[in-house]
Amino acid sequence: MDITIVGTGNMGRGIGTRLVAGGHNVTLVGRDLDKAEALAGTLRSGYPGARVTVAKPGEGLTNGLVVLALPYAAALDFARTNATALAGKTIVDITNPLNGSYDGLATDPGTSAAETLAVLLPDSRVVKAFNTTFAGTLVAGNVAGQPLDVFVAANDDAAKAAVLQLVADGGLRGIDAGKLERARQLEGLALLGITLQMPLGLGFQSAWRLVA
Ligand SMILES: NC(=O)c1ccc[n+]([C@@H]2O[C@H](COP(=O)([O-])OP(=O)(O)OC[C@H]3O[C@@H](n4cnc5c(N)ncnc54)[C@H](OP(=O)(O)O)[C@@H]3O)[C@@H](O)[C@H]2O)c1
Asked: How is the chain split into domains, by residue range?
């Protein structure tokens, strides 16, 4: 599958790694093309044969699935600016809308970043995923030898199934977390995970895993 990732930072690398590991083609959109090229090189060298291309903002949005690997505020801006280009596409929201002191969420009670994005993109299929997995663990694909759980929430079943398949292709376990409204809990879960890193000395190398 051809997938676009907007953002070439830590999560662009983490999700890009899992996508090329799964045999998918990735277009990296970055405002700094040198940085995008460097990440493309990293992904290609980790997975020889991987097809990774780069594009600047305003381009590279022709693929049917677009991952927004941007800070929350930038993702909202991107959605406002590119709503027409993103219409009809599956948009993966990975954001954690942290407040300025990183100890709470900037979203209003009773909603979520994903639902806010969906309001801005009424003609797109917004899927919440990857917000509870730290970037370094995505590069590794596991923590302590255990594949990561990726919680996926969306209102559109086909879009959610496509993202769950990408997760599985990348060697991770996808968990259908229900409708997009579940993003409220997923964003809270990620916040809790972030606040635990320092006191427990986890170094962002931990993961939430559902054990039955
Ligand atoms: N890091 C994690 O472990 C983790 C885990 C789960 C979810 N998340 C979420 O994933 C998202 C990305 O996090 P990250 O760790 O990848 O951040 P990051 O390493 O700082 O990368 C952010 C990317 O967004 C770009 N960007 C920043 N501000 C922008 C703007 N105003 N307009 C356009 N592009 C902009 C940056 O471009 P430049 O490189 O040019 O600055 C960079 O490519 C965030 O929403 C975060 O909450 C992160």
From this structure: 2-200
Residue nearest to atom 30 of ligand 1 (CA): 74
> What is the per-residue pLDDT across 138-177, written as a single tens digit (0 to 9) for each?
999 999 999 999 999 999 999 999 999 999 999 999 999 9
Between the CA of 74 and the centroid of ligand 1 the distance, in Å, is 8
Buried b (16+ CB within 10 A) or exposed e, 85-114: ebeebbbbbbbbbbeeeeeebebeeebbbb
- Determine the Cα–Cα distance for residues 183 and 101; give it in Å rounded to an integer: 21
* Amino acid sitting at position 169: D
Q: How sure is the predictor about 58, in pLDDT bands with cuts at 50, 70 and 90?
A: confident
Which atom of ligand 1 is nearest to 135's Cα? 3
**CB of residue 7 inside a 6 A radius of ligand 1:** yes
Q: Is the pTM of this model over 0.90?
A: yes
Question: Hey, what CATH class is 2-200 in?
Answer: alpha beta
**pLDDT tens digits along 16-51:** 999 999 999 999 999 999 999 999 999 999 999 999
- Our answer on whether the CB atom of 131 is closer than 6 Å to any ligand 1 atom is yes
